[in-house]
Amino acid sequence: MLRIHVVIATVGRPDLVRRTVDLIASQTRQPDGVLLVVPSEADAGTAAESVVRPEVALSPKGLCRQRNRALDLLARRTDVILFLDDDFVMAPNYIAELEDILASDPSIVGLTGDLVGDGVRSGGYTIEQALELIGKHAAGLDPRMRDREALYGCNMAIRLSAAGSLRFDEALPLYGWQEDIDFTHQLSRRGRILSTGRLTGVHLGVKGGRTSGVKLGYSQVANIVYLLRKGTMPRKLARRLLWQNVTANLLRTPFPEPHIDRAGRLAGNLRAMADIAIGRMDPRKIERM
Fold first, then answer.
1. Which domains can be identified in the chain, with CATH numbers?
2. Which residues contact 260 (CB under 8 A, 6 or more apart)?
3. Which regions of the chain are under pLDDT 50?
């Protein structure tokens, strides 16, 4: 039997994280532990009082820093870490299916689920809408395993024996945009990383507490260039992300979506491009903006 811990790194959304932690109690196979990693006790709110009794650990702010804190704390205590965003709702059989897949094939070192809904792309879902989507569509997803170059960070499971000393790159600060690509692309060199409809859920895409438009826009360019130079982002993916994000910000700035700061993102894109041109690009600059 594999030991499986759920890790949620969160900041500034205590009410949301309490609700998502409470939902873990509905899993048909309970995790062996739940760890919340937060910059302050206030960020966890009342989540420690949940029926699943999560452990709360403090860490300097930043998704990569917080997830690294979890890796250090759990290195000798578990076999698998399931990293979830604080706005991810799992289908009830997620952890049971995860254990079954990983126990059946030791060559699999990472897994991510095929989602029935991703609010990042649709403007956001409520928890009630997420549960309805799961109830209607989860059973109909394709159960086949598909090899991937990297995993989606809102729900990704890591086999710790394969990860070893691998850590998230803390040069990608705050929200850590594309930290999942960087980490799991390196993990893929140590075994198979896969996606499947047997694992599913909904990424709510909640907007509150996220990075500002200018900072995210800077990261949309700077982080990709940084990871290209590092060699942990496939060139084809890097070109597609750069083209999609910069073009979307440019075209939609005059008529932005209500939930997206297109003008701020475009300003951040341009600032990063200027820094690249003069040789001063650094993803960590967003911490000083």
1. 4-203 (3.90.550.10), 213-288 (no CATH)
2. 213, 252
3. none
- The 8-class DSSP code of residue 151 comes to -
Which of 50, 40, 39 shows the shortest CA–CA distance to 17?
Answer: 50
* pTM of the entire predicted model: 0.94
Say if CB 163 and CB 78 are below 8 A apart. Answer: no
- How many CB atoms within 10 Å of residue 32? 16
Q: How far apart are CA 218 and CA 240, in angstroms?
A: 17
Q: Is the distance from CB of 59 to CB of 37 less than 8 angstroms?
A: yes
Cα separation of 116 and 197, whole Å? Answer: 9
Tracing tokens 């499971």 back to the chain, one arrives at 157
Q: What pLDDT was estimated at residue 289?
A: 87
Q: What is the pLDDT of residues 210-226, one digit of tens each?
A: 568 999 999 999 999 99
Give me the pLDDT at residue 210, please: 53
Residue partners of 211: CB distance under 8 A and separation at least 6: 174, 175, 177, 219, 286
Would you state the pLDDT for residue 26?
Answer: 97
Q: Where are the beta strands (DSSP E) in 10-61?
A: 33-38, 55-58
The two three-digit tokens of residue 279, written as one number: 């040789």
